[in-house]
Design goal:
The protein has about 220 residues and is mainly alpha-helical. It folds into two domains: about 5-20 and about 135-200, Helix-hairpin-Helix base-excision DNA repair enzymes (C-terminal) (Endonuclease Iii, domain 2), CATH 1.10.1670.10; about 30-130, Hypothetical protein, domain 2 (Endonuclease III, domain 1, Orthogonal Bundle), CATH 1.10.340.30. Helices cover about 65% and strands about 0% of the residues. The chain is built from twelve helices and no strands. The protein has helices at about 5-15, 30-40, 45-60, 60-65, 70-75, 85-100, 110-115, 120-130, 140-150, 155-165, 175-185, 200-220. It is elongated.
Length: about 220
């Protein structure tokens, strides 16, 4: 089975199993989404959603967050991993938004990735979910599933992202990102696939048939 055929199986089963994926991080505009995604590094979305209500109440805008001290921010996000550095990054990026972007979140990869604490994955999430730009952010779930489903043999996030973008239509990237993340959390976790996961079952079955066919062809040859 070729990668494109496996990709078709994946897209079909994801659409059947999670037809309307919701953005897991709670937010109400581009700025609060950016803050939530920065906080999600090495931290679960559930934990982020627990701390952001208090943070957004104290600092709902870049101007308000830029006026806070890192120690004040840290006290509100203390249960998130890397709280010290995240607090500093959030205050600094808010200052930059105010001084260089008129208090608005920029809508280009280059500008977003120049902000403190914002890497390519964070920028991709914001570009897609806040501005509707086609992007395929690759997190640990997607990286694992892409390799498990033999959609990519990449050993880096960048490699896997390139492979996935080649396999799926551009207009589906954002939705597939959400579907794969939710599937990886609930049906195909790192410790092992659920026995009833239809994607793994179909990929394994077709892989077995492919190997059997190759062996038979070799014997005939």
């Amino acid at each position: 089975m070729r990668k494109q055929e496996r990709a078709a199986i994946v897209a079909e089963e994801l659409e059947r199993g999670i037809p309307d994926p919701e953005v897991p991080l709670k937010h109400y505009d581009a700025f609060t989404l950016l803050v939530a995604v920065v906080l999600s590094a090495r931290c679960t979305d559930a934990r982020v959603n627990m701390v952001t209500p208090a943070l957004f109440a104290a600092a709902p805008t870049p101007q308000a967050l830029a006026a806070m001290k890192p120690q004040e921010v840290r006290s509100l996000i203390a249960t998130c991993g890397l709280a010290d550095s995240k607090a500093e990054h959030l205050v600094e990026l808010s200052r930059i938004l105010c001084e260089q972007h008129a208090g608005r979140v920029p809508s280009t990869f280059e500008e977003l990735e120049s902000l403190p604490g914002v890497g390519h994955k964070t920028a991709s999430v914001v570009m897609n979910q806040a501005f509707g730009f086609p992007a395929f952010p690759v997190d640990t779930h997607i990286f694992r599933l892409a390799r498990r489903w033999r959609l990519s043999d990449g050993t880096t996030v960048e490699h896997v992202e390139r492979d996935l973008k080649k396999l799926f239509a551009r207009e589906r990237w954002g939705k597939l990102h959400l579907q794969m993340v939710l599937w990886g959390r609930t049906r195909c976790p790192a410790r092992g696939c659920h026995p009833l996961c239809p994607i793994c079952a179909r990929v394994r079955a077709n892989t077995f048939e492919e190997k059997s066919s190759n062996r038979n062809n070799a014997l005939i040859g």
